[in-house]
Amino acid sequence: MVLNEVICVPVFTASPWTLEYVLDNTTSGMFDVLLDFSGSSNVGISISTTLQTKLVLHAFDRKTISLYRLDETTRCAIRFQYNIVRQEGPPLILELTNAALSQIDQNLLHGGHYVDSTFLSKATSLHASPNEDGQYTWRHYTEFYPSNAQITGTSDLAVSLTRGGSLVSKAMLSALVVASKRRQILNRIISTSKHSFSIQLYRDGELQVIEIDGYLPCAHGGGPMLTKCTQGYLWPLLLQKGLAKLYQGFSHLAKVSFDELILSIFGYSAQLLFSLKDPKQASVHLNQIISCLLNDNVVCAKLGTTVFVVSAIESSSLVLLDPSHELDGDAANSKDEEINKCTNYSQYKKMYFAQFTSMVQSVWYLPKLSTCAKVCRRRYFVPYNANSSDTEALFGLSISSTALTLITLIYSLPRDKPIEFAVLSVQNDYKLSEIATCQNDPSTKYCQMQLELYPGEYVIAIKRSSIAIQEHQENNSDEVQLDRFFNVLDTDMDGRLNFDDLKRFIQLYDSELSIDHAAYEWLLSEFESDNRGLTLQGLRECYKANGMNDYKNDIFQKSTCCVLAVHSESSNFTLVQIE
């Protein structure tokens, strides 16, 4: 039940007998709460000597009231009343007390729980501006949830999502709603160990296993300022913290687009179904939406500034799931006035076809594809001559059954530099026949193609126009050249040079050479690093110390990092790089 912006969820367990009332403040406001069980029989409140209890819910707070039976052999009766009043303005002394408590929280962060030393619970992990850092404190999830809380459950995960605080963008809300429709994906990518959680995410096409602790950014004296699940499941909190670590800070994460978030969670992006400049054309595409839903795809539609999820289609209307739904009424002040007319404080809403077609801007769908079986990454290649037909990199793909296949190329070039790839089938006489060509969208740093492939062998050829290397002739200062050099060596595009990156670099000079772990550890100790690899500044310090300038070689200055990823409905396919 929803009570004046506070959600109260009763949780009953028959054996052993337990009854809990979980109060979840979904807003940044504060509430005085009175729970009255007067008239109940054979029960008591664990934190009170009477059948009444008062408490204060701070911003985004979550508290649990437990009832117990006085006599385990006798039945009980529950009579429940409540009174919830929003505080219009907390007294100054309360604000000062909360600030003092937050300092205590900071000092006790390492009290018995696992702490992730690579993403510490402090302001640097937020990357907020100095005047925002004081708005947050860090608290362990077990202060709000039981230690055995489940990651996902069996109920509808989407409708239990809250709006969250200032660290949550609309893009993140939309991505979480889409993720909630793929419960099997959530169960696969989020796992728990004795002390920590592991999240499998993608960055620039590379699968990365992100390890996190249980500390979350919270309001002073209150709860997590992130989107959370009111049914007590941990998945949205864990996924947001994993993504924040992937993007090196919560404030950085708030600037990531919906497309990039989907790519980071699933390993492939949502596919554009149609985009309209003339809204009248939308009615033609309703059949496409119906077909996508029937094939178990997640369909998203952009109306105004919000991305909705199309949940179902009825006789004359669409059932939409609104990710930006807010219980505190802030949605009523949104610019999307027409959309909010049908909100009625419910995440599921109906919209008639005529209204939908007059407002829709574009529609995507997320196909149900298998996990990427293998990601191939080219090591180093130089741009081909504009007068030549040579390709920069070749990949071989073998598939055993007819399947929808998504091929994605992610690269480190600026977004306005053209890059393309072609898919060619291998004929019986070993000649190649081009099936399709895909060129990048200037608004993204990747290009991708979805097509149905039949059993057989294919070649994927990557090309880049000579226009793409003009940037190398515009600025050739030592700093810029070192930046390019770093990007080439950083083949997994994670912003640091790890052991594998440096090993490839050494082998480029001489296949007989190698780097040992002792030398690698020495580099990290002598020059700037983040304990996981050499940073860009560390590489600059290294070259400044030895006076070498091999980074100016064309093989580095005209090379580009890219990642080729293939997802398919078929889990039985092979992807290899052709050297």
TrEMBL record:
Q: Calpain catalytic domain: which residues?
A: 113-295
Which parts of the chain span the membrane according to its record? none
- MF terms (GO), sorted A to Z: calcium ion binding; calcium-dependent cysteine-type endopeptidase activity
Reading the lineage from the top rank, the first entry is Eukaryota
Q: What region holds the EF-hand domain?
A: 477-512
The organism encoding this protein is: Thraustotheca clavata
Q: What is the protein's given name?
A: Uncharacterized protein
Q: Which UniProt keywords apply?
A: Calcium, Hydrolase, Protease, Thiol protease
Q: Which family does it belong to?
A: Belongs to the peptidase C2 family.
